[in-house]
Amino acid sequence: MTVRRLPTLLAIGLVAAVGVAALVDALRSARPAPVSSTDPATTAAAGREVAALRAAGAVGVLVVARPNCRVDLLTLPDLTATTIEACARLEQSGGVVMLDGRLPSPADNISVASCTGEGVVLERADVTYSLPGCEPAWRPDGRLTVVHRGELWEARPPDVRPRRVLSRAELRTFFDELLPAPDARSLEVTEAAWPSGTRLVAVLRKADEPRYLIAAFEGKRLRLWRCCFEDLRALRVSPAGGFVDVAWEQGVLVFDRGGGFFPVGIGDGRPANAVAWSPSDRFVAVARAGSVVVLEPGEEGLREVARLPIEAGDLRWVASQRDVVLPEATN
To answer: Which of 265, 284, 325, 305 is nearest to 71 (CA)?
Structure first.
């Protein structure tokens, strides 16, 4: 299957810049054992799909959040699965996936535990910290950014004194000559992601409509932007930093390192509802009702590698099962 690329409208130029060695070692050493193991996840079509995955070089573990409080750790290319009985909320930082919804720092043993009306709650051992705002996103060096009242703020936990990174006044300045004045004045940040220490991708909203746009910044310089969408949310950077994906009104929209962007679907007109990039960014797994499809990005779009008859609510892709940290309840 091929999805045709749309014209190059947004050049993000992402760079992989995530260092997680210390945190990964700490989390791996403490992870509990899996609850249960199963035989190969598929039978009738398993041989064909396994052969296709092996020929393409697709390896690692797909973390598949299934209905009815179940998570499958699906090992590629053999399609053997470990099943965990857990009502999981998947979060990923660097090469580690947490099943309990915590978002670990890429540079320290501190995690975002939750986001409430009071702000972001962070945990480090038995100590908790709070920071006003929500929509947390870690920078590669361990600084945490949050959105508070339409602006982007940051702190370096455990020091949680906030510093403004991107203000509404700055947004007005950036877009003053690019958008009608009322639109530029109403812009606010809704989400942010950090492909590198200096490169920021942000979802912005024109608060009075609402309409959404996506913008790429290098330091304090607006590089490029794309408008307008009825909805943009769930902004994520791929593990190696080569892609940014974001949910929109028609499914999932992907921005690549070459500046192209394209909607991700499965070829039958139905949009994707979850996307997971392989650790090397070479492959992408896409979930929609009734299946997970493994695709390989190329110059002509996305080539289908394998189609798995799996119902998935959410997906992540890691190098091995040791990179999955289970909820404490499964001990």
So the answer is: 325
Q: Give the predicted TM-score (pTM) of the model.
A: 0.79
Which token pair is 264? 């991700």
Q: Say if residue 231 is in the same domain as residue 259.
A: yes
300 in a domain, yes or no? no
What does the alpha-carbon distance between residue 303 and residue 283 come to, in Å, rounded to a whole number? 10
Residues 146, 251: one domain? yes
288, part of any domain:
no
- Identify whether residues 227 and 207 lie together within a single domain: yes
Give, for all 331 residues of the chain, the pLDDT tens digit: 333 333 333 333 333 333 334 434 444 444 444 444 444 444 545 789 999 999 999 999 999 998 888 999 999 999 999 999 988 888 888 788 999 888 989 888 899 998 887 799 999 888 999 999 999 999 989 999 999 999 999 999 989 999 999 999 999 999 999 998 888 889 999 999 998 888 899 999 998 777 899 998 988 899 888 888 888 888 988 888 888 888 887 778 887 765 566 777 655 556 677 889 999 999 999 888 788 999 998 777 778 999 999 889 899 999 999 999 887 654 4
In residues, how long is the chain? 331
Asked if the structure places residue 126 within a domain, the reply is no
**In which domain, by residue range, is 87 found?**
20-105+267-283+311-325
- Count of domains forming the chain: 2
Are 258 and 185 in a shared domain? yes
Q: Which residues of 42-78 are buried (b: 16+ CB within 10 A; e: fewer)?
A: beeebeebbebbeebebbbbbbbbbeeebbbbbbbbe
Q: Does residue 274 share a domain with residue 215?
A: no
What are the DSSP calls for 296-325, one per residue? EEETTEEEEEEEE----SEEEEESSGGGEE
Does any domain span residue 175? Answer: yes
CATH of the domain at 195: 2.130.10.10
Q: What string of DSSP letters covers 220-263?
A: TEEEEEEEEES-EEEEEE-TTSSEEEEEETTEEEEEETTS-EEE
Cβ atoms of 292 and 62 within 8 Å: the answer is yes
